[in-house]
Amino acid sequence: MISRFIFRQNPPTSTLARYGVAVASVLLLLVVRLLLHPVLGMRSQYTIFLFAVLFTAWYSGSLPALFALALGAFFASVFFVEPYFSIKLENLSDALAVAFYMLVGVAIIYLIELFKQHERRLAAQITKQVDVEDALRQSEERFRLATEALQGAIYDWDAASDHAYRSPAIFDIVGYQPAEIQDTRKWWQNLMHPDDYNRVQQSLQGRVAERASTHSVEYRVRHKNGHYIWVWDKSRISYDADGKLARLIGCTLSIDERKQAEDALYANYTLTANLAQAIGAEEVAQTTIDYLLQQTNAKAGTVYVYDSATDTFDLLYANLTWAASGKLAEWYRFPADPTYPLTDVVKNRKALWFATIPDYEAAYPAIKTFSHLNQGATVMLPLVAASGVFGGISLLFAEPRQFTDEEKALIASLISQCAQALERARLAGKAQNLAVIEERHRLARDLHDNVSQLLFSSSVISEILPRMFAVKPEKAIHQAGELHFMVRGAMAEMRTLLWELRPESIIQTKFSNLLTQLAYAAESRQGCKVSLIIHAKNEFIAPPDVQIAFYRIAQECLHNALKHSHATLVTIRFKQTPNRLLLTITDNGQGFDTQTTSAGFGLKTMRERAASIGAIRDLKSRLGEGTRMRLMWDSPQPFTGT
Asked: How far apart are CA 195 and CA 78, in angstroms?
């Protein structure tokens, strides 16, 4: 303690000050010894100066201490050894006393120097330890800030001890407090979704078998509240000397928002594709309701159209298979009573979300007189188009439930697509009596309104791409490719439509270009892969009747492959020489029996078109083995025109 107290002081740094301490301490003890001389006499005349040596050695160092030692011997000899005031040692005892004093003083100086060196080493070690602790604290602070910036949880699992460390950020992901988290891997595995557990384990085992250094996987885990969320887990794999899994160090990030965005995008895209194939208002309504029931787990749904002329509602489609409804016939048409919720939805353009039947009845007491099919939540939304509100959709649930903002946005988006498709179908239906509109309706039926649906899907994807780039760049790049695919398909559909409206364009365009647009349009319309192979060096345009016949036959083949055969792959081969045109279209669809199946209108038309230009048409198909159509036309003389 004394040494620590002394070393806390600031020892003199100059040489003069250090030796001044030695002189001052010796002179002080000389005064004390003179005062005690009447008592001590000739005893301890040297010993008292050892305290000056001790103090100087502590405070000023070894050399000033040696100076104090010599100065003490000098003063003791001069003042306390006879003859006084001289440094003569006339007897042996005085000489031995001086020698003993000098020996003890040197020993004290040596021991103090050793102790001071030990103190310096100890101080250096303490300083180093403090520096290490400071560095550790800084490292822990950087680690904490890094984990907070990542918005993810860091973990470290040791396979030998089955001990797992997880950072406190795990609370932000699954809602568990640090005291509730078990330090085993099994605890986390028990949170995994049952449908994902085996996939995650097989993925890790596969990476370990490959001796890979990293592992990355996406899966669902159960939140403390009971629902499942998506996470992305990336870890570094360490192995022991035997090549076995020894340690996993990684990070778990929540990707639930990104997954919800992807699900919403996929739901919109899927419904868009289904609506593109729907013909007529009733089929559009059926497609929408059936899809909504699947996506929301609703048990029943209806679509009503409002007739402003009669102020009534007409049932367009109802899916009530969940419960029998003997009185449904009474609700095919009913007046727009102001006390009915559907009237409020349509006339006030209001969306209704009721978690329970009591909430529903409290808002609209008139419905208490009806027996409800649903005993849970109820949703009603208006059908809104450019012309205004023309109807409403209702969804019925078996159990009470609350709707999140994300769920409301998804349902509203799907119903918005339905409204647009219904509006197009309604407008087309009203125009069927006019010849020009009838022709456009035929074109719309053939193309299934695919251009507008593709443009809508493109709009949806383009809106979500910026947010997806920030969360999952790889997925965003893939979606950008899908966007390019949709735009290309829409352009192909538009070109096809222009050729239909202006047939002269068909005979003025190279056949390889015609086939390319047909392929693009088919891929975008059905999601089918179309492979196009062209062999036409110095391609020329065939005679008009041949060009049109080949185009119509190719168009009909693609339509049959996608609509009736449900093919997922169509291969188109076109070869042109100065003397011959050869077109082969093959699909992997369900095929048909050419011996027993009667020729439909499409097959009959293709046969007649081929015969009209003197071409040879060969058709082969078997059930379950797809279909191949081969069309060959030989020119009477070599043709080199362009």
From this structure: 102
**Tokens 């939140």 found at:** 223
CA-based nearest residue to 298, from 394, 364, 390? 394
| Burial environment of residue 303 by CB neighbours within 10 A (0 to 12, 13 to 18, 19 or more) | buried
Closest CA to 346 of 309, 317, 308: 308
Report the amino acid identity of residue 615: A
Cis peptide before 382 (omega within 30 of 0): no
Q: Where do we find the tokens 């890979």?
A: 212
Boundaries of CATH 3.30.450.20 in the chain? 151-254
Q: Where are the alpha helices (DSSP H) in 278-340?
A: 281-296
- Answer yes or no: are the C-beta atoms of 246 and 162 closer than 8 Å: no
- Which residue, 559, 593, 560, 577, is CA-closest to 632? 577
- DSSP-based three-state secondary structure for 456: helix
d(CA 377, CA 396): 6
Cβ atoms of 381 and 335 within 8 Å: the answer is no
Q: How far apart are CA 64 and CA 21, in angstroms?
A: 8
With respect to CATH, is domain 283-429 assigned 3.30.450.40?
yes
Rounded distance, CA 618 to CA 634, Å? 15
Q: For 238-248, write each residue's pLDDT tens digit.
A: 998 888 898 99
Task: Render pLDDT for 45-88 as a digit per residue (tens, 0 to 9).
Answer: 778 888 888 888 888 888 898 888 888 888 877 777 666 666 66
CA distance 233 to 155: 10
Phi, psi at 158, each rounded to 5°: -100, 120
Classify domain 151-254 at the CATH topology level.
Beta-Lactamase (3.30.450)
pLDDT in tens, 247-268: 998 888 888 877 776 766 666 6
Of the candidates 617, 639, 624, the one whose C-alpha atom is nearest the C-alpha of residue 554 is 617
Span 503-642 CATH architecture: 2-Layer Sandwich (3.30)
Question: Is residue 5 within 8 Å of residue 119, measured between CB atoms?
Answer: no
Could you identify the residue written with the tokens 């797992």? 164
CA distance 526 to 486: 11
Instruction: Answer whether 276's CB lies under 8 Å from 525's CB.
Output: yes
Q: In sequence order, what DSSP letters do the residues of 143-167 get, joined into one string? A: HHHHHHHHTEEEEEEETTTTEEEE-
Burial class (CB within 10 angstroms; exposed 0-12, middle 13-18, buried 19+) of 340? middle
Rounded distance between C-alpha atoms, residue 541 and residue 564, angstroms? 31
Is 149 buried (19+), middle (13-18) or exposed (0-12) by CB count in 10 A? exposed
**Length of the chain as a residue count:** 642
Q: Which of 305, 456, 270 has its CA nearest to residue 394?
A: 305
From 273, 195, 295, 260, select the one nearest 472 (Cα to Cα). Answer: 260
Q: Are strands 529-535 and 569-577 parallel, antiparallel or unpaired?
A: parallel
Question: Range(s) for CATH 3.30.450.40 in the chain?
Answer: 283-429
